[in-house]
Fold each of these.
Amino acid sequence: MEVSAEVEIVGNKSVQELALNFENLPPNNYIYNEGGVGFRDALLPSESDFHVPIIDIANLTSPSTSQHELHKLQSALHSCGFFLVINHGMTSSFLDKVSEVSKQFFELPKEEKQKYEREQINIEGYGNDTIYSENQMLDWCDRLFLKVHPEDQRNFKLWPQNPIDFRNTIQQYTECVWQLYEVILRVMAKTLNLEEDCFLKECGERGTMSMRTNYYPPCPMADHALGLKPHSDSSSITFLLQDKKVEGLQVLKDNRWFKVPIIHDALVINVGDQMEIMSNGIFQSPIHRVVVNAERERLSVAMFCRPNSEKEIQPIDKLVNESRPVLYKPVKDYAKIFLEYYQQGKRPIDAFKI
Ligand SMILES: O=C(O)CCC(=O)C(=O)O
Ligand SMILES: [Fe+2]
């Protein structure tokens, strides 16, 4: 799909500014007629046999890997593609700091934030939805999107200088998450009895990571708006630091929406489309969305780990056989086509299915 020009439909107001104007209803592009109470009242995992398991990663990295923990991970990967990780080596105060510097950025005056504004069509920087068509549904969310790994891809002119410890904190967080990423990819290979480095190799040298901080202001029509519309991620896997107090993330399973619980100090991990492709569909990239709240703001920090954009990726040979033929075409630079599909409510992965 060609990347087309960006269209302007609501002026260049941030969602934060729209939220300040509570007596005026948000523009139509934010309002889903089919919303209603059910929009926010998704099921809790405890209300069914659906689970988002909590994986103790320390149990999977010691020489005596716990088979029980490995099975738990295996079943999460095969059933919903979402799991929570604890014992990842980052302290509670450090994770709080990551959320705090991110929140402080969104609290700055408009003029200060605008110094880091994204350019038209460009995803990197501060802003909200890229708009491709007049009837596109918009997300009730402002964001700061930055390339964080490898170091030479950092575009520091878009990295906030204020709060003063933003850069340092995010650089440190990047290092920790990248290390964890390599560990998780090895363990995921292990659950399939593959060589531990097979997914890392398939991603090529110099895989990348981008950070998207999502800021969801309170919304006057919370039952009829979405913080993020239903999507799966373009990543191999995504690490999500949820808001500590305000829930909002939901995952689609068997045509029903479930809440992803908030567990203190746990990071949420989900399979992305590129992992679905590499695993030949054994790991499914889950569809998820974010609902908003009438009274409270919410903030989340997503780290999208991706293969090197110049590396063509495809299903791992050992996962292709007579009973499981190859299900996806090879793909290169998947993230590039992702955004325009997303904004039209489509899934790019469908275009690569054989
Ligand atoms: O805010 C959240 O909880 C989820 C964010 C998300 O799905 C994303 O950034 O892709
Ligand atoms: Fe997502």
Amino acid sequence: MTAVMSGKIVENFALAIQAPAMKLVKLYLAQSVFTFAYIYMLSSVGERVAAQLKKELFASILRQDISFFDKHRTGEIVNRLTTDIQDFKSSFKLCISQGLRSFTQIVGCAASIMFISPQMTVGMLLVMPSIVVVGTIFGSVLRKFSREAQIQIAQSTCVCEEAISNMRTVRAFAMESQEQELFARETDLACKLNERLGLGIGLFQGGTNFFLNGLVLGTLWVGGKLIASNQIEAGDLMAFLVASQTIQRSVAQLSLLFGHLVRGLGAGARVFEYIELEPNVPLTGGKKIPYHSLFGDVSFENVTFSYPTREGQPVLKDFSLKVPAGKVIAIVGSSGGGKSTIASLLERFYEVDEGRITLDDFDIRKLDPSWLRGRAIGFINQEPVLFATSIMENIRYGRPNATDLEVIAAARLANADGFINSFPLGYNTVVGERGATISGGQKQRIAIARALLKNPSILILDEATSALDTESERIVQEALDQVVHGRTTIVIAHRLSTIRNADIIAVVANGHVVELGDDISLRRKRGLYWTLVQQQERQELEDATSNRPPQSG
Ligand SMILES: Nc1ncnc2c1ncn2[C@@H]1O[C@H](COP(=O)(O)OP(=O)(O)OP(=O)(O)O)[C@@H](O)[C@H]1O
């Protein structure tokens, strides 16, 4: 009998809880689905925002003037692309997820305490502005701390980035321990600044907690008085306390979030600082001279220029020089006289302060800079930089849509086809970072092929052979002699023996041309050119007798 009764009770109970249990299951299911959707959406939005920022930042960095790269170190720039964007993304996600929850809890509970006791709520609201004011002041101090810490982190990244990318030099000078010490110093400083930031955030959160607990005590005190005067009931005070405790927890959460927000805002500000930076020389826009009507007459007219990092110290002063189309002009002069600067200005890496530079009578400021650099001018310098990819792709960098046959033709013209084919993988040989796995002369010939692929009307050779030994110099020089035909060529040379056949030689000193003519006429003049030739011949003779390799300069 009892067993039957108890069976019935269980049955009734099961029936009774069936409907609510189903509701609960549905609720749990819905909660799981919402949790999944919210976490997935948040992470997806966060990742997309970060990826978009990264792309925009990189695009903006690529757009910047060369002077930007003179002023900022590589590590500092890379840090903004990596650490800062990561910090920004993490705090963005955290602030949205926790911030939204805390915010809605605060709003909901604020409405209910308002309903329970408007008097006590108004009292609470009256003390709130003080925390807002204190919080704002504290916040700006913390943001400053965060900025300083992030700058210091970037500084330590710079040290390690520089050491790693110049590992051969570090090893050759046995500077490992000094680099280690320098990195440790910078890292310790970053650590101290971060600790200071942590201390500030800790104080802020501790202070917030203290204030909120004070608020609970205050509520109990005021609530007790209201109960005594029969204005509210004990149950209302309890409900008020529970709701205000929820507000307190949410505000505490928000204050915890505040630290992340400070970091995120600091990082975001650093990212946007670069994104919003507008270069003086845009990458594109302006006239493009059609290839068939481009002659290649270059003229510098009364150019005055000082580097943006050294304003007030002009490198070129009222500098004028005409380079007729198709001619080879050599620019010589003492070291630091401004020869490479002339090439940089023609490439429009920097803007002239006064005067103008023209190409076929067009001011280069009116020409499309990408067309000027990418099509009209081929630039080969002393230390060609190759990328860690195949030789084929390195040469194709000169013109991305060139066919394999065109690449090979350019390599032949540059005297490079022979050695490339001697590698087991031929054009598919990967050259290592910065072309570390091939010789200087080979690197230079690949760089020449790369420049030739554009078929430029103007060729600038900035000390193109000065880093090479005599044999490699001869081979590269032969390649260069072949390729200068029919192009306006500006040769910047230390070794005067390599430019004897130039149509015009311009001797540059103190920022302007002091002598102009060909080798024979300039020697006859017995001026600066003659002195430089004499100095170099004496040097070469001394090198030969002492069996030392010849030195440039
Ligand atoms: N990016 C730069 N920022 C600031 N000053 C620079 C920069 N590049 C060169 N200079 C300075 O400008 C002056 C001319 O330099 P430039 O490289 O044009 O001389 P150069 O005649 O080519 O020298 P070298 O024969 O030694 O290569 C030098 O005093 C140099 O220190």
